Each structure stands twice: as structure tokens, then as C-alpha cells.
Amino acid sequence: MRKQTGAILALGLLSCTAWAQSGGADKPPLYTYVSQWAVPRVLWADYLKIQANDDKELSKAVADGTIVGFGSFSVLNHQDGAPTHGTWFSATSMANLMKVLEAERAAPDNTAGALAASKHWDLILQSRNYGGHSGSFKNGYLRVGTWRYKAGASDPDGKILKATMVAMFDKLLQDGALHSYQIDEEAIHSADPDAFYLAIVANGGEGLDKFNAAIESLGKDNPMGEAAFGSLVDLKGHRDFLAHVDAMSRQ
């Protein structure tokens, strides 16, 4: 990769047996499709009915191995004109990702009024830094940070990210504070090509607190790593969003 990274969600989120492995050697690429909707508030209930049907179909795709995981979410920190809801699903090949996408496009709900009245964005992401626990969860919180590299910054082989973010995420995953994480970049560039995404799904509100505490202690526990990460990114370009994970399932 030109400037290594592979995020939110998603979010995260997301793998089969590979998801349970920790960082280190590069993992096989994981591809994630993220669908985001800005739904008028008056139509939220209608949208959630559509989302529930979609969750059932995506659960089947996880069960038969076409995808390795999916999640649906409702954004908590709303911004004018920004998404209010969304879904992600992940696969180990673009072929399987497209197979599920085509089924989504052909679904009867795809022409429902709540979707027709909503603004819509998509992302297609790729990650080689990811991890998570198998199972189905409804207590998660998806936090996605969008970061941009400084002009001229580079991270050959992703060594800085692995020594800082991946190491921290793996420890939080091992401690049970996270259900999953991904560090993503766009596979199909529709936004800033220098952007990357840090996406976690926290295990409830307590998991968010543990994540925040880990961020706060990074400077004390790994000052050289924090300085190295800071040398890569443009702090002024950083943005976050927080969402409740309404449904999530992973192999």
C-alpha cells in the first residue's frame, strides 16, 4: 500500500477465524461495503422495519459463509446533512461482496418510500488490520474516526499503525472491551485518497470507557508510538462519529 492502512464501519466491522488472530503478519484482505442513509426523522420507524428485514437476509449470508460479518447501526451524534443510519457487511473476496450487494439491490425493500426519500452514500473499504469475536451482538457502539495523512507522511509496511493502534485494539479485544475493530482505507476511492478509518465496536458503554482510557494512557504507555502516530496524521482533518449497533453478527 502507498500509505499503509486498511476502518468504520463501520465498522467493524470482521472476519472468520482470521478475525480472532492478533496483529503482526499481514492478514488476508478483508473487503467491507458500507451503506449510509440520511433518513428524515419522520421516516425513522419505517426505515428500521426495512433494516430489520435486511438484517435477516444478511444473517443468512453469514450463516452460509458468503460474508464473514455484518452490522446495522443508528448514528447518535447527528450532523446536518450527514447519515443517520447505515449497514456494513464484510467478505474475504470482492466476488462475495458483490454477490451480496446484488442481492441487496434486487430486494423488494430497495424501492421502499423511506429509502427513496433519504440521501444515500456508499463506501467500499479494504483492511489488513482487523480483529474481533465470533457471535451476535446488540449492545455494541460503533465509533469511527476518519484521519488524513500529513503531506509527505508515510508508514512503510504499516509499522507505526501496528505498533500503536493495532496493538492497543488487540489488547482491548483480548480484555473484552471490544467486539471488533478494523483499520480501513477505501478500495474504491470516492473520498479523499489520503484518508483512513479507525473503526471499533465497543462492548457496551463500559467498552467505550475502556477505549477512551486506553487513548488517554497511550502517551504514558507508549510515548514514542504516540509521537510517531502524530507525525503521520493531520489533526485538523480528524472527525468521529458514534452509533448504536442495532444488530451485528460475525463468524
Structure notes:
- It is a single chain.
- This protein is an alpha+beta fold.
- The protein has a single domain, classed as 2-Layer Sandwich (Alpha-Beta Plaits).
- It is 32% helix and 31% strand.
- Strands 1-3-2-9-6-8-7-4 form an eight-stranded antiparallel β-barrel, surrounded by four helices.
- Helix 4 (159-174) packs across helix 5 (204-221) and helix 5 packs across helix 6 (223-232).
- The two termini are 27 Å apart.
- The model is unreliable at 1-24 (pLDDT under 50).
- Count of all domains: 1
User: What is the arithmetic mean of pLDDT?
Assistant: 89
Topology-level CATH name: Alpha-Beta Plaits
Order of strands, main sheet, comes to 1-3-2-9-6-8-7-4
Any guess at the CATH architecture?
Answer: 2-Layer Sandwich
The CATH C-level name is Alpha Beta
Strand content: 25-35%
Overall geometric form: globular
Summarize the structure.
This protein is α+β, with helices and mostly antiparallel strands and 251 residues long. Helices cover 32% and strands 31% of the residues.
Write the layout of secondary structure elements.
Blueprint lengths: L29 E9 L5 H20 L5 E7 L9 E7 L2 H13 L6 H4 L2 E14 L2 E3 L2 E9 L10 H16 L3 E9 L8 E9 H18 L1 H10 L6 E12 L1
Antiparallel strand pairs: 1-3, 1-4, 2-3, 2-9, 4-7, 5-9, 6-8, 6-9, 7-8
Helix pairs in contact: 4-5, 4-6, 5-6
List its salient traits:
disordered N terminus; globular; 32% helix
